[in-house]
Amino acid sequence: MLKISRIIFCVAFIFIVAKARQVWDGSQIHSGTGTPDIELGSEGDYYSNKDEYELYGPKTENGWDTPISLKGTANVLYSSWIDINWNHTDDPTYKAMNIVEERITDDFLDTGVIKVYLLSENNNSNGDVRIVYPIPNFINNAVLRYRVVNQTDNYDFKGFIFEYESTDGNNLSDLADIHSRRWAA
Fold first, then answer.
1. Strand-pair category, 82-83 with 178-184
2. 17-31, 115-129, 155-169 — most confident range
3. Minimum mean pLDDT range among 5-9, 58-62, 118-122
4. What is the pLDDT of residue 93?
């Protein structure tokens, strides 16, 4: 959590500083711990409270205003790689599997981001080849996609439906060496 907060802090700090440079040419960025002393800096300057991840500024003729917090949350839900099991539908041109994930809530769906990836592992003359594909994606004249399910009247589970569907009507190729992974942030 600390590393993520620092990354968010750095990105937000750089963005805010870049904007400040446009407005206050010649301003400086001060840093320290705790609240900045009223005597520190000049109008247009900024102050970073490294202990609390707060940014003050720009300083005005009245001094330092209330800081903005640069802390963020990165609530990450993830899974290990999951072997493909067409437990929902296994037809020649359409395949689907249910992946149960009880941590999917309405609140998470309203505020979170879901990322799904597919790991392809193949052996060839050059050795093992591992490729990670973001989903949705097109592979071998087929679309790979997913749907999020949050226990509605139509579904009796929370999670994902991972789908593999032919785009040209031909039978789907074998995905025996492909595994699915989902990652949510």
1. antiparallel
2. 155-169
3. 5-9
4. 93
Task: List, as one string, the DSSP characters of the chain.
Answer: -HHHHHHHHHHHHHHHHHHHHHHSTT--EEEESSSPPTTSS-TT-EEEETTTTEEE---BTTB--PPEE-------EE---EE----SEE-SSEEEEEEE-TT--HHHHHH--EEEEEEEEEEETTEEEEEEEEESEE-SSEEEEEEEEES-TT-SSEEEEEEEEESSSSPPPP-TTEEEEEEE-
From CA 89, how far away is CA 168, in angstroms rounded? 18
Query: How many residues are recorded in the chain?
Result: 185
Considering only CA atoms, which of 2, 8, 3, 54 is closest in space to residue 32? Answer: 54
Task: List the 46-49 sheet strands across, edge first.
Answer: 29-32, 46-49, 54-56, 68-69
The tokens of 101 are what? Answer: 């994930």
Burial 85-109 (b: 16+ CB within 10 A, else e): ebeeeeeeeebbbbbebeebeeebe
Is the model's pLDDT at 18 over the cut of 60?
no
